[in-house]
Specification:
Blueprint lengths: L10 E5 L4 H11 L4 E6 L12 H11 L2 E6 L5 H15 L4 E4 L14 H26 L6 E4 L8 H4 L3 H20 L6 E6 L7 H14 L4 H12 L10 E3 H7 L27
Parallel strand pairs: 1-2, 1-4, 2-3, 4-5, 5-6, 6-7
Helix pairs in contact: 1-2, 1-8, 3-4, 4-6, 8-9
Length: 280
């Protein structure tokens, strides 16, 4: 890549992004001078979760990007339509869509409440499909359009199908929607890929839904996800699409061989990091 800042002036529309992996991806793009629009629910501070869409926007500007905070809900089609129109109006187009917003509940089938099941389907699957669909007419005009969904490969092992069926359905639905879009719009030159880490990432989801402080300490930082996402988003869209990518594999292909700097607790050996779900 001859351009030192290939995302300079590019416009990225993301679902979520007030904190965690989404914010890290936004900040990495902002360092290039990208325009970042965030469609997120957190307008006011949350009692347990850090950050709002407004604090995220301030961090993006401080990192060197332009920010457009949009308070809305990816479950609401009107919110999505408004986000696309506002982003296009503010920045003149959309080059990248990141389907980051996600709900998680690892309960078993008999324990999972219907409302929680519906929430995961609405945020993860429906949100990914609707945001991508709404942006595609604008992405068609971009020079190197990308859709990136933060979801796993389709591992049909009974180990994962049966571990938390409701959550598995929701995350695999994100992946299937993305791969379908990749195939359907390949002729338009729109890349659509998914990205998933080999280890858990130190985020609120890990803290509150997976394993608390112990698992947080055995995780990697969101920056590893952000660096891998960046590598994906600067690839030529017509050639680099329809893939279920792994964070560490993407970074290795870009020349990164030492991941020790991404440990949430410095000095933690790779062998002691906790593997993420859906990967054998």
């Amino acid at each position: 890549m001859t351009d030192a800042k290939p995302l300079a002036g590019k416009t990225l529309l993301m679902s979520g992004g007030s904190r965690g992996i989404g914010l890290a991806i936004a900040l990495r793009a902002a360092r290039d001078g990208a325009n970042i629009a965030l469609l997120a629910k957190t307008d006011q501070p949350h009692p347990k979760l850090e950050g709002t869409v407004h604090t995220a926007a301030a961090e993006i500007v401080a990192a060197g990007g332009q920010a457009l905070p949009i308070v809305g809900d990816v479950r609401d089609e009107d919110s999505i339509t408004e986000a696309v129109l506002k982003t296009q109006g503010e920045f003149g187009g959309i080059d990248i869509v990141v389907n980051n917003a996600s709900a998680i509940d690892l309960s078993g089938t008999l324990e999972l409440g219907t409302k929680r099941f519906d929430l995961m389907q609405a945020v993860n699957v429906r949100g990914t499909f609707l945001l991508s669909r709404a942006a595609i007419p604008v992405l068609r005009d971009a020079a190197n359009p990308h859709i990136l969904s933060l979801s796993p490969p389709l591992n049909l092992s009974p180990k994962w199908l049966g571990a938390h069926t409701g959550y598995t359905l929701a995350k695999y639905g994100m992946t299937m929607a993305t791969l379908g879009i990749a195939a359907e719009f390949a002729g338009d030159g729109i890349a659509a890929n998914t990205l998933w880490p080999r280890t858990t990432i130190a985020t609120a989801a890990v803290q509150y839904s997976l394993g608390g402080d112990r698992m947080m300490a055995a995780s990697r930082t969101p920056e590893i996800y952000a660096d891998a996402a960046y590598e994906v988003l600067v690839q030529p869209a017509r050639e680099y699409t329809g893939q279920t990518l792994i964070v560490e594999d993407v970074l290795e292909a870009s020349g990164v061989t030492d991941f020790s700097g991404y440990a949430a607790v410095p000095g933690t050996p790779d062998s002691e990091l906790f593997p993420d779900v859906f990967l054998d």
